[in-house]
Design goal:
By secondary structure, the protein is an all-alpha fold. It has 22 helices and no strands.
């Protein structure tokens, strides 16, 4: 490697990390470091605009704004309480019943919003006060809420899965959607085990006894919301729609259900919901565009090959390399948001993962879960901040209560890493 290339790599990565630690907006950090790298190499800055346009000129990425809009409409349309009631009918009878309800409700809601932040903001404002009123500690209630919100990133439809599929190239969105169900259920089960142990030790109350009649009533009420998931997942898997087409249909369906069935949203409030979508979407698209330039710089400088040699130089044992990949992703999750991690790390780490036998679909699930854990960790854990703000608790107190749930999430991550069938059995059974 030439001195020029070595210096360009240093300029690209060091300037990026410095700006991240100085709390620059991540899109600015990515763009500025890319500009410095291109300028040092004497490349025309027109490359910047060309690569930015190329990054967002993808039919698959058109699904992202639709999924975000669907989640916002459903979240504004009064379905949060419906899903909470359904979860209560399922598991509210257990020891620590409201904690279990919180976890199961996040699994249901995640299939609609696909966002941990949306889950925490929407369900947390209902669940945390409800749990505190029933005798649960506020810090425990907050920890359960933010931990369970990560399920929503695994359960389809998830716009982050679409971003990963586009970045990785050649990966079926439908297969990724199917792959998320069992890992999401495993994460929920792990959190429920942890919640049960803590609830038993602290004497948290049980809910009402299970009633099949009550369960069927709540299922009938919630079926309109849950059907949105069927439209997307079944449509994509069956080949009736592309991911983009199914997402567009789901937006129209969500709008009609929110306004005319649940009546939690009025027409005049739709514009406010769409404003929220535009805010989120603008951030996502800017990140995708600028990260494509960053990825271009990494590729032309052969950074993925250098990273592969460095990691495999530590050990040739595939188990050790798999652990190293998870550690790298967890550390990145502590200092960066999810979208840029997916966009920047995938070209570097995915080839290493596939070289030790990890399927790209399985790696996508590992990546998303690692990023989800990162959203709950300081210093830049967005979901951790949202939960702390809703509960009006210091972040340090929430982190302390979160420690048992970190452990349960790591257990789920280890199982997903070393038991491929957890992620792959459903896609393989359906021919992917």
């Amino acid at each position: 490697m030439t001195t020029v290339n070595t210096a360009a790599i240093v300029i690209l990565l060091v300037s990026f990390l410095v700006m991240v630690f100085l709390r620059f907006p991540i899109a600015y950090a990515v763009a500025i470091s890319s500009i410095l790298c291109l300028a040092y190499q004497g490349l025309p800055l027109a490359t910047l605009s060309q690569q930015m346009v190329k990054g967002i000129s993808s039919f698959s990425l058109m699904a992202v704004p639709f999924f975000i809009t669907m989640g916002v409409l459903m979240g504004s349309g009064g379905i949060s309480e419906k899903l909470l009631n359904l979860a209560d009918a399922c598991v509210g009878w257990m020891t620590g019943g409201l904690a279990m309800v919180n976890i199961v409700a996040s699994y249901f809601f995640g299939g609609i919003s696909g966002s941990a932040a949306a889950d925490t903001a929407s369900l947390g404002s209902l669940e945390i006060p409800m749990m505190v009123d029933r005798g649960y500690d506020k810090d425990f209630s907050t920890a359960v809420t933010i931990s369970s919100s990560v399920e929503g990133m695994l359960v389809p439809p998830s716009h982050n899965m679409v971003i990963y599929a586009t970045t990785a190239g050649g990966i079926s969105v439908g297969a990724l959607f199917l792959a998320g169900y069992l890992p999401g259920a495993l994460l929920a089960f792990s959190l429920m085990v942890g919640s049960y142990i803590i609830s038993k030790r602290r004497g948290y109350p049980k809910g009402d006894k299970f009633s099949l009649k009550h369960f069927l009533h709540e299922l009938r009420t919630s079926i309109w919301a849950l059907s949105a998931i069927l439209i997307v997942v079944v449509g994509v898997v069956a080949g009736v729609f592309t991911a983009t087409e199914s997402a567009a249909i789901a937006v129209i369906y969500s709008l009609l259900v929110s306004i005319y069935v649940y009546k939690g949203l009025k027409w005049r409030e739709v514009w406010k919901a769409l404003e929220s979508c535009i805010d989120t979407l603008s951030i996502v698209l800017i990140l995708i565009a600028t990260s494509n330039v960053f990825g271009y710089c990494l590729t032309t400088l052969h950074v993925p090959e250098l990273a592969a040699r460095a990691i495999t130089g530590v050990s040739s044992n595939p188990y050790v390399i798999a652990v190293l990949l998870n550690v790298i992703l967890l550390v990145l999750g502590m200092i960066m948001d999810m979208a840029p991690i997916i966009l920047i790390s995938t070209p570097i780490l995915l080839p290493i993962a596939t070289s030790i036998g990890i399927d790209p679909i399985q790696y996508g699930i590992m990546l998303v879960l690692n990023c989800g854990i990162g959203l709950l960790t300081p210093p830049v854990g967005a979901v951790l901040f949202i939960g702390s703000a809703i509960a009006e608790l210091p972040m340090e107190k929430v982190v302390k209560a979160q420690i048992p749930f970190y452990l349960m999430m790591i257990v789920a991550l280890i199982l997903i890493t070393f038991v491929p069938e957890i992620s792959l059995c459903i896609p393989r059974a359906l021919g992917y």
